[in-house]
Amino acid sequence: MTENITSALAKFIAEKILKQANKVIKPDEALISSGLIDSFSLMDLAMFVEDTFGVRIEDTELNAQTFDNLSQLTDLIASRQ
Fold it and tell me: Are 43 and 62 in contact (CB under 8 A)?
């Protein structure tokens, strides 16, 4: 189940945010702290998470502690489903 979440997140980030459909994003690759995703893209990602997985993301969670890699984000989504 979590593998599906991780792959859906990776696909969305690669295709919609980075506009690089072939980019492989590793589960532990830094997204925010590395500068791969900026604050505007973070909002897009949060909306994707809420719409796709039916979980609520609080504004206070839009930070590198929660969203810095796919593993963290997958764990958050799985814990709320």
Answer: yes
pTM of the model: 0.91
Domain total of the chain = 1
Q: CB-based contacts of 31: which residues, under 8 Å, 6+ apart?
A: 13, 25, 37, 67, 68, 69, 70
Q: What length does the chain have?
A: 81
For residue range 43-73, what is the model confidence (pLDDT) as tens digits?
999 999 999 999 999 989 988 888 899 999 9
Residue 55's domain comprises 2-80
Q: What is the CATH number of the domain that holds 21?
A: 1.10.1200.10
Supply the mean pLDDT for the chain.
Answer: 94
- With residue 77 as reference, give the H or E element that holds it: helix 70-80
Two tokens, residue 11? 């696909």
